[in-house]
Design goal:
Bound molecules: iron/sulfur cluster
Structural class: alpha/beta
CATH topology: TIM Barrel
Number of helices: 7
Helix content: 25-40%
CATH architecture: Alpha-Beta Barrel
Order of helices and strands: EEEHHEHEHEHHEHE
Length: 211
């Protein structure tokens, strides 16, 4: 094992997912750590102190997921990297791609609020990008996530240009208390100017204080 081998902070692994995060049957590999702090985060364990995770190598993850090879190949599915934010570990996904080859579909659920060099690596090894845009309005985004969205939008524009619109799904939610339907529509229109054509618009539920 190389000392500089990329490792993925795996805190959850879910098998046999269908139509939730990418095409076909998928296994979700969730990364610990996220640059954002969304007010209605569904997975706060992905960034809270004290969450247990294992820093796995690409081969170690491959060995854990390869039992579903037949499901993946029969359905056009594969592995979805989520979190937290998985694309801050793009070199790991690249190493994983070298192990699984092209037979599995690799997807990433990402906020894209990541350094540009990580995006450039991801472009080379991820088949589908499920992008959690939230809202393109900087003020709404900052109030909801605690962060700026400039880098995320720059990355999204570069991504669509690099891989084409078919490989990008933009999630643009209505977030009660944070944006309105008109804001969602404004975000969709802005993203169309970036070349985005695939959208997932929905409403966050607030019944338990989480999205
Ligand atoms: S980007 Fe996702 S994981 Fe990170 S804080 Fe927001 S909802 Fe939670």
């Amino acid at each position: 094992m190389r000392r500089d081998e990329p490792r993925f902070p795996l805190f959850a692994l879910e098998r046999h997912r269908l139509a939730t995060d990418g095409q076909g049957v998928t296994t979700l590999a969730a990364a610990y750590g996220c640059p954002l702090r969304c007010a209605m985060c569904l997975n706060p364990q992905s960034w809270r102190k004290g969450t247990a995770f294992m820093a796995v190598t690409a081969l170690e993850l491959y060995d854990q997921v390869k039992m579903d090879d037949l499901y993946f190949q029969a359905t056009g599915g594969g592995v979805t990297f989520g979190g937290g934010e998985p694309l801050t570990h793009a070199p790991f996904i690249q190493a994983f791609r070298q192990l699984c080859g092209d037979k599995w579909r690799l997807s990433a659920e990402t906020c894209l609020n990541i350094p540009e060099p990580m995006l450039n690596v991801a472009i080379e090894c991820v088949d589908e990008f499920i992008v959690d845009v939230k809202d393109t309005n900087p003020a709404i985004y900052r109030r909801y996530t605690g962060s700026d969205n400039k880098q995320a939008l720059l990355n999204l524009a570069a991504l669509v240009k690099a891989v084409g619109p078919e490989r990008v799904l933009a999630r643009v939610p209505l977030i009660p208390g944070f944006n309105e339907q008109a804001d969602v529509e404004a975000s969709v229109e802005r993203l169309r100017l970036f070349g985005v054509t695939r959208f997932d618009t929905f409403t966050y539920r607030t019944t338990i204080g989480k999205a």
